[in-house]
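User: Some background: our group keeps a shared notebook of sequences we're curious about, and every so often someone picks one and asks for a predicted structure to add to the entry. Today it's my turn. The entry only has the sequence so far, pasted here. Could you supply the structure so I can complete it?
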Amino acid sequence: MKYYFQAQYHQRLDLFDNVFVSMATGNVVEPSLPLEIIIESEDCVLYESDNGSIIDFSPPTLGYYWITGQTCLRTRDGLVFEPCDDKDAVQYTYIDGQLYGQKINTDLSKMPTTQTRYHFSKLNGCKAQLKQNDDSSFTLEIDEKEYPIALHELEFSFFVNEETGFTQDGEQLYYYDRPVPQLTLVDFRVLHFNYAKDDHVVVCGTDVISQADAATFEVITTTLAKDKNHVYEFSKIIKGADAKSFVVIDGKEQDAYQQYSKDKQTVYYFGEAIIGADLASFRIIYGRYSADKNWVYRSGLRIALFDAESFYYISQSFVGDKNGIYTDFLNITQIAQCDDVFVDYDNDYFAVNDTLYWADKEHPFDADLASFSSINCTWAKDETHIYYKDEVVYEGGYETAEIFDELLLRVDDKIISNRGIIAGANAKEWHLLIFPFYACADRLFYQQELLDKGDPNTFEALDDNRFKDKSNVYIFDNDFEIVDTIFDINTENIVLIDECFLKTPDTVYFQELAIQDADPDTFEVLEYRARSRTLP
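Assistant: Of course. Here's the predicted structure to add to the notebook entry:
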């Protein structure tokens, strides 16, 4: 028996072929309808078409989905569609670190793009209700007027029945596979993902909170709880916290949802007291940054370098105050003075007085400022160049440049790595097999390297660190770098013995080394013993 609780969430979801998918994880979620939605004007576009108004929440990303090699783009200006009749169109998304494809409704790709559109500047921050119709489509209600919804990206507050880590098998309770002590089934109830209790005992996972008062115990967030006497982070008492006045600070507008809390005398960041913070003047700047009248804090720690009164947040890479601009990295560095001309190109790229830099002022490089833009934190472009960090990896004219993955870029019909053009790679045929293996026609690549004897048509994983095709085995280390390859063997009946040994019907291998005279039928691993060295 599994246990669930109803939790309220605030996150970005994508309505993808009438299925809600988390923009953070790619996992499918099933929120309770109707949904309360917070509208953000920079994402909202209202299209007036012959069939009625259509609201589109277009993310500022390119190459959002692919249809048999043709790309349907979503841009900052709205939707740009390529006509398509293929009913097997696929949208790609990352789920638990793996790339998956899901079919989409290609009727949406025929949406007209020449209609008048209006940005929702007056609705920024307003709330709306998302409702499901009898035909399973969705509409958005704003001020009692309903709009049909097409492709979009929304920020939702919603309720969902969340599966917890608690399960029951007969008379025994478990948190995942570990027995939960002291709780009685008669009075047992789940409070949240980590917390449960009966009439006398409270647990966080399998940890008994011995000082908790079960009658008054309540969950505040996924990691915080309190009773009449104490406030808890997981199962640990937050020393000095006043339970009666302890509340979570609403940080949704500053991208700091449930990160900050306070009581009558102290401010907390993820349950840790911000030492010396002035409660009366404390304010959330953005995300992990906060300030009071005296100091600026990053992740709850005082940063003496910044001026508290004038401090402001620029982006994920940069912050500033009256004295200049600083990098928001582990080691904070001032990169511009207050009278310098600073331009943030996003994703760690910036310019100071018309000189371009990547990451810090140790990495200057030349580019055309008028056409320069970043692609992500390691790729950038101008009209005739592609840059990896601060190095030119491609020179010449091009029409499109899209991220394929962290180290690969699709430039027109070419695939570019951080080392330059990948010889023999054609973008129309290039596709991911299992990261970091790729295929292009009948050629197998490990990242940007062609594996001469590789066969992508028979390629598959043996386990997390070993892969094979019809005649080769590829062995990785824990950093996912190829360590060894077994060439020219018949891999059809290969057997994994353990993480180091494998065998074919004819041969036993330790890693890539064939063990001479070993009999595959009777071979077994007894134990590993460290080889000792006797000193002379």
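Suggested note for the entry: Confidence is low (pLDDT under 50) at residues 41-122, 530-536. The chain has no helices and 61 strands.
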